[in-house]
Amino acid sequence: MLFHGGGGGGGRGGAAAAAARMLVRYFSRKRGQDVRRINPKVPREEASEISKGLYQIVKDHGPLTVANTWNFAKDASINGLNSKTHMKIMLKWMTGRKMLKLSCTHIGSSKKFLYSSLPEDPKAAQPTTPLPVTETLKISVQGKKARRPNPPPPKKGGEALC
């Protein structure tokens, strides 16, 4: 019972017990899957064609669950997409390639996982040319510089600073 209730250290064992519980919790977790190394189960050319179709579905219809994505994919009849399981693998592959974003929304005591598209070009949303600087801004900046008093010159000699 050393780590369970404090361990007889006169109240100081609580921190050690908390640290031990944290270590046990940390090391008992399963390591996350490396989504960049997912095998799409088809050749790269075919995987890119399937991913273009799935990306267009997610982009057109907004954040979608896996079930809704499968319904739209069946209607779109994407060539090369074999089953719902294969579509899930492709969605995970696309997430690893930073084509899609997986988000979680809490609804009561349950969770809903939604796939949404990432912006195609984040730099396109920003203006490419810098904003023009107005003459009044230049004058005000120069005026502030002119109004600043010069710092006093350092004292010469062997005077001790207090």
Please describe the topology of this protein.
Elements: H1 13-28, H2 44-61, H3 66-76, H4 84-96, E1 100-107, E2 110-117, H5 135-147
Antiparallel strand pairs: 1-2
Number of domains: 2
String of helices and strands = HHHHEEH
CATH superfamily of the largest domain: Winged helix-like DNA-binding domain superfamily/Winged helix DNA-binding domain
Cα-based radius of gyration, to the nearest Å: 30 Å
Oligomer: single chain
| Proportion of residues in helical segments | 40-55%
Low-confidence stretches: none
The largest pleated sheet is described as:
2 strands, antiparallel
GO molecular function: mRNA binding
Region (Disordered): 120-162
Describe this structure in words.
The chain is mostly helical and 162 residues long. It folds into 2 domains: 1-30; 35-121, Arc Repressor Mutant, subunit A. The protein contains 5 helices and 2 strands, in the order ααααββα. It has helices at 13-28, 44-61, 66-76, 84-96, 135-147; strands spanning 100-107, 110-117.
